[in-house]
């Protein structure tokens, strides 16, 4: 029997400078995500949304890591919620929201595996490296920092979620779909030892970012170059290995285009078995 999938929405858009990604969880649901999974014979539990504060009622604080305290609080809640799902034998399916949420969702998988003395393998599917730190970021936008936090040690507010760091080692981290890196970020990636070609470690958490897709409306940033049809094949090796522990998906820019239509496009072209939701789990 496939393990049940627990949907966790995170309406977070404090990490970037474009509004609307907080609408992502609703867009996935409106497009019929749960129904698609149920049609594959997978039990689905919707855990609802973890609601984040909005910029209109907060000040961004440190310009080198804007809204870091608020983002860290949301990620800490996501960590606890995702970990509880794993402890119950489920698969957390985290819907964002901007990709700073990865600091919480991946931390939960890392902790769950750490208890069993198993190392985490992280497959980061994104157009960007997300390995900036407060010292290298030109914008101070935290959505460009979650992978840096998971590898440690900065930004510290995200790196210390769960009480341990690092969450994953560079040699067990793979970047897929990278096409847009800052100059200083390129140096960090080269120096880190993170792999930039597809490779599947055991016990993997897959973090996917909608900006990997090009013609599909509602994804950002603009000017993408990756063919969305390739996303249909990103997970196929995982179908045969049975190693997926959790998955998070984020970055849908709602106001920029018809967001529900985007998700219908993505769901109609998704083979959920290929990302570990059916068959061999």
Describe it:
Mean pLDDT is 77; it is low at 198-204, 209-219, 221-243, 251-267 and 269-281. Helix 1 (24-30) crosses helix 9 and helix 3 (68-87) packs parallel to helix 4. The termini are close together. The longest helix is centred in the N-terminal third of the chain and has 20 residues, at 68-87. The protein has 281 residues and is of the alpha/beta class. It has helices at 24-30, 33-39, 68-87, 102-114, 146-151, 156-159, 183-192, 236-241, 259-268, and strands at 5-11, 44-51, 91-96, 121-125, 173-176, 204-209, 244-250. It is built from 9 helices and 7 strands; from the N terminus they run βααβαβαβααβαβαβα. It has a single domain (5-275), classed as Arginase, Chain A (3-Layer(aba) Sandwich), CATH 3.40.800.10. A 7-stranded parallel beta sheet has the order 2-1-3-7-6-4-5, with helices on both faces. 51% of the residues are buried.
Summary, kept brief:
By secondary structure, the protein is an alpha/beta fold. It has nine helices and seven strands.
Features:
single chain; 281 residues; alpha/beta; Arginase, Chain A; seven-stranded parallel beta sheet; 9 helices; globular; disordered C terminus
């Amino acid at each position: 029997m496939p393990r049940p999938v627990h949907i966790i929405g995170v309406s977070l858009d404090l990490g970037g400078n474009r509004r609307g990604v907080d609408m992502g969880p609703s867009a996935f649901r409106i497009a019929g995500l749960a129904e698609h999974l149920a049609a594959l014979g997978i039990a689905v539990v919707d855990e609802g949304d973890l609601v984040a504060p909005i910029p209109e009622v907060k000040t961004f604080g440190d310009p080198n890591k804007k809204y870091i305290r608020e983002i860290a609080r949301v990620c800490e809640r996501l960590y606890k919620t995702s970990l509880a799902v794993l402890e119950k034998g489920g698969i957390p399916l985290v819907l964002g929201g901007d990709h700073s949420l990865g600091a919480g969702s991946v931390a939960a998988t890392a902790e769950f595996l750490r208890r069993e003395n198993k190392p985490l393998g992280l497959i980061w599917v994104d157009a960007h490296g997300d390995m900036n730190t407060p010292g290298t970021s030109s914008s101070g936008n935290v959505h460009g920092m979650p992978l840096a936090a998971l590898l440690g040690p900065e930004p510290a507010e995200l790196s210390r979620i769960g009480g341990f760091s690092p969450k994953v080692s560079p040699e067990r981290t793979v970047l897929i779909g990278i096409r847009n890196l800052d100059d200083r970020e390129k140096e960090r990636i080269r120096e880190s030892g993170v792999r930039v070609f597809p490779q599947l470690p055991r016990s993997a958490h897959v973090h996917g970012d909608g900006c990997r897709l090009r013609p599909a409306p509602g994804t950002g940033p603009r000017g993408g170059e990756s063919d969305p049809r390739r996303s249909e094949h990103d997970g196929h090796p995982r179908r045969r290995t049975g190693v997926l522990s959790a998955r998070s998906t984020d970055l849908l820019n709602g106001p920029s285009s018809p967001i529900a239509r985007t998700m219908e496009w993505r769901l109609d072209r998704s083979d959920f078995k290929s990302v570990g939701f059916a068959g061999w789990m």
